[in-house]
Amino acid sequence: MNAARSKVNEQISSKKSLLCVGLDSDPGKIPELFHRMQRPVLEFNRAVIRATREHAVAYKVNMAFYESRGIDGILDMQSTLENLPPESLSIADAKRADIGNTSRKYAEAFFDHWGFDSLTVAPYMGEDSLDPFFEYDQKLIFVLCLTSNPGSADFEEQQLQSGASLYQAVLSKVQGWERNGNAGVVVGATKSSQLREIRKTAPGLFFLIPGVGAQGGSLQESAAFGVDENSQAALINVSRGVIYPEGNFDSIESFENAVSMKAARLHNEMQSIF
Predict the structure, then answer these.
(1) Which one of 16, 60, 95, 139 is the catalytic residue?
(2) Do 189 and 217 touch, CB atoms closer than 8 A?
(3) For residue range 263-274, what is the model confidence (pLDDT) as tens digits?
(4) Confidence check: pLDDT of 225 > 80
(5) Using CB atoms within 10 A of its CB, is residue 161 exposed (0-12), middle (13-18) or buried (19+)?
(6) Strand, helix or coil at 226?
(7) pTM of the full predicted structure?
(8) Alpha-carbon span 81 to 133, nearest angstrom
(9) DSSP tag of 109
(10) How much is the average pLDDT of 154-166?
(11) CA pair distance 11, 42, nearest whole angstrom
(12) Residue 34: pLDDT band by 50, 70, 90 thresholds?
């Protein structure tokens, strides 16, 4: 059985949680108290991890928030990865894909060098662009399928000559590409009406579901429609709705308490499906 999938499914069952915390750590949004420290983003991430590790089963590192800061951001990403609980799933939200030779180097970067458990990829260039990622049969590969943004209507929901939507064609292809249970899809929480249909069509895929919280997706529907028959194989990602609690914080402890309360509330809402 796939190592990454087994690890996170074990955590889902033991914690009765689907919570994935998105580390979209923006220096312009983190509390002022962290800016008094030598590495503000890293210390912010450490605080978020400490506050959520009881409730979360996965952490998604959005590469844009680190790459945009150059080498300092990459060093913060690396140190953040080292601080993640070893039992949790690490996701590189990078949305990579290119011609095969380039994709192979992307796969080596995220899996061999950084050691992430999973990665988001884009399907537009087809099978040969994603095959280097699927060769890693102990990892999880999350292919963009039906995303939560309004622009998903531009391409993903367009009807093909066959009568199927483009996202349905992607879903069908991904099921054929999987190796040893390493295939997953990204389905937005704002698409709850299609989420049920996608799960029925692809019972064996692992789902990554962003869009709860700031984007307005339903947590209850995402949890109920996203899991497989064992109440596993789904992660609900929440970023801003967890890591940026309202208020002014005069200590790391007060910040962590506020983050923990948000994570606990989401965790409690998810437990109804188990």
Answers:
(1) 95
(2) yes
(3) 999 999 999 888
(4) yes
(5) exposed
(6) helix
(7) 0.97
(8) 20
(9) I
(10) 94
(11) 25
(12) very high
Residue 56 CB coordination number (10 Å): 28
Q: Which helix (H) or strand (E) is 45 found in, with range?
A: helix 40-52
Residue 207: phi and psi, rounded to 5, are -105, 135
pLDDT single digits (tens) 62-71 = 999 999 999 9
Q: How many CA atoms lie within 13 A of 159 on its CB side?
A: 3
Q: How far, CA to CA in Å, does 175 sit from each of 13, 97, 121, 201?
A: 24, 18, 15, 10
Query: What confidence score (pLDDT) does residue 88 get?
Result: 98
Instruction: Name the percent of the chain in helix, strand, coil, to the closest 5.
Output: 50, 15, 35
Q: How many helices (H) and strands (E) does the chain have?
A: 11, 8
Radius of gyration of the chain (CA): 18
Q: Say whether 16 is catalytic.
A: no
What is the token pair recorded at 271? 């437990």
User: Where would I find the beta strands (DSSP E) of 167-265?
Assistant: 183-187, 206-209, 234-238
pLDDT above 70 for 214:
no
